[in-house]
Amino acid sequence: MSRWYLLICEIVFVGVVAVAAVLLFRRHPPAPDAVAVDIKLPDARSHAWLQRQPDGGLLYLISNPDGAIERLPSEQLAERLYKSASNGSSLWFLNFSAPTIMIWIGIGLLGQLLFTGRMLVQWIASERQGKSVVPPLFWWMSLVGSLLLLAYFLWRRDPIGLLGQAFGSFVYLKNIVWILADARQQPPALAAA
């Protein structure tokens, strides 16, 4: 493959990830005069908006993933957040109650373990050789970990994580392509008689 072809593929891939991120991350207010507020809600997929009422008071609008809009005064929202935070779990914001969320957290954790574990593999290989080396397993762990994290960050709607993983995926893939091409060019080892 030519280098220009790979560069164009990288640009297209990152462009597709960027467009997907823009489409996934844009939020439309549930009311024309509502403004977005950054509140960590028990369901990470819900969004909070603040709207001024005709009497001058403020009302929170919570848009849920199913499309339902809840209208809550500040005291009621505060009470709900307090109950969620004090239910005995210090990780209430992860909402471990839903099986789908547990699966996605597992995917993200596995991706991070692979991505971090690749450095351990590289360190052990370098120690054995007595010099800096990068074994093929390093690149495979990088690619699989990166793709799992990319999927997880898409689910979490995390643009920083998406950009970080989208660029690296092609580097890892290109190194694997070089390793596989190198392996095909090696003459088969003669069996010792």
Count the DSSP helices. Answer: 5
**Rg, Cα atoms, Å:** 24 Å
How many individual domains? Answer: 2
Q: Whole-Å distance between the termini? A: 39 Å
Shape: elongated
Question: How do the strands and helices of this protein lay out in sequence?
Answer:
Layout: H1 3-25, E1 35-37, E2 47-52, E3 58-63, E4 69-72, H2 74-85, H3 99-129, H4 136-156, H5 159-185
Antiparallel strand pairs: 1-2, 2-3, 3-4
Helix pairs in contact: 1-5, 3-4, 4-5
Explain briefly what this protein structure is:
This protein is of the alpha+beta class. 59% of the residues lie in helices and 10% in strands. It has helices at 3-25, 74-85, 99-129, 136-156, 159-185; strands at 35-37, 47-52, 58-63, 69-72.
Can you put this structure into words, describing what you see?
The chain has two domains: 1-29 and 98-184, no CATH class; 31-88. It has five helices and four strands, in the order αββββαααα. It is 59% helix and 10% strand. A hairpin with a 5-residue loop joins β3 (58-63) and β4. It is elongated, with a radius of gyration of 24 Å. It has 193 residues and is α+β, with helices and mostly antiparallel strands.
